[in-house]
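INTERNAL AUDIT FORM
Audit reference: QA-55
Scope: verify that the stored structure record matches its stored sequence.
Auditor: D.O.
Record contents follow.
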Amino acid sequence: MEKRVAIIGAGVSGLIACKYILEKGFEPIVFEAGDTIGGVWAHTIDSTKLQSTKEVYQFSDFPWPSSVESIDYVGEAYEEIESWNLWGENGKPFGSKGKWHIRVQDVKGCTIEVYQAEFVILCIGQFSGLAYIPNLPPNQGPRVFNGKVMHSMDYVAMNSSSAEELVKNKRVTLIGSGKSAMDLAALCANINGPRYPCTMIRRTANWVSPNDYISGIVLGLLYLNRISGFLNHKPGETFLLGVLATLLSPLRWGINKLIECYLRWKLPLKKYGMVPKYSFLQNVLSCQIAMLPANFFNKLEEGSIVIKDSPGFGFCREGLIIDGETRPLETDIVIFATGYKGEEKLKNIFASPIFQQYIMGSPTSILPLYRQIIHPRIPRLAVIGYGGSLTHIATCEIRCQWLAHFLGENMDLPSIREMEKDVKIWDNYFKQNADKYFRRSCIATVQLWYNDQLCRDMGCKPRRKKGILAELFEPYGAQDYAALTA
């Protein structure tokens, strides 16, 4: 039988998936909506920096130096799929009579062509493509504003000279306070200086970290080595590990409070109202730690960047009406740095309403993906790149190695019931630890626990270091998981 594999998306996760699928002897076809490969990293601005140190945010073997309309599964009826005990009927990547029909629109000619594949890998990314813009009352929406309104996605897609010219000598206001907003604020401040300050409208303050060597070492020692794993509860942990994590919880609390004290001492957070109302640990558990752009606080000090706290806002002819302020904020350009609707983009790729419902799951649960890769009820399909971690590239890479191992028919999946049970265990973990941000499926504090599961599935030894001291204390990185499927 044919074993055609389609990869949708040529960002970081798509390129890694292609690499490992090729190593298994397949000849995948890769679809990309944009005009270049690389995903969000193909369009960045000068002030963009890595969220982690380069040692933990790189490929294992490469250290730093067309638009798909929809996919539809054609073959078995939904009633038959529901009756299966094993994923895809046999627990293997190939075998059933079904095929995926992939409707692809040529972005230049606007023609539609339908491709077929026995297996599809979705690598369409969470942070691109479908921008999130808050809903505003009609009389306070962007249409009443005389200036220009855009999303950060559109701004970073511009070439450097056009992007600089757009904001030069203009009053720019950014909606948001996350990593994209800080990068854009730093860029505008570098271009305009204090004469035309860039204003950030912030609803919630998050913990930020200096983009330096010490911060990278601290994060690695606290969250990416074996010894730190004993401090945290883990999904599916044994009784003894659970007791140990409970006994050590005061130590974990103390360490994270120490980090908060260090950041308050190192950075003028209180001076600029940037001390969050929740703990550093909560930020880590929801993968919301942001690395500061270079000289960010210097720009605040000189007045090139201004931060305004507000739970809400609206547009007017001159600019923005900020909640709690009597006078409008006059501005020329408003840029929404408010993130993306990644889950909606994932849902919309499916033509079938049933599969749309499957992939989204319940609003009160995580995306129901086994190993954060396979949906138990959607056959012959994998998702790469969803779910948060502190080492996104390394996480995508080990997932792609796991998937390549599976596609090479070197392992079978457990029953659908067992996979759904495992998804529920992880769902409970995220709800208990990440609070309202549980849908992010952030594995920051259980990264090694998660990697160990993938290694065991592939028949690889999970302990990758040489010597017990290195195993316990040395942070893990992408290089420790190189060539697992070789």
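Auditor finding: record pair retrieved intact. The CA atoms of residues 360 and 367 lie 6 Å apart.
Action required: none
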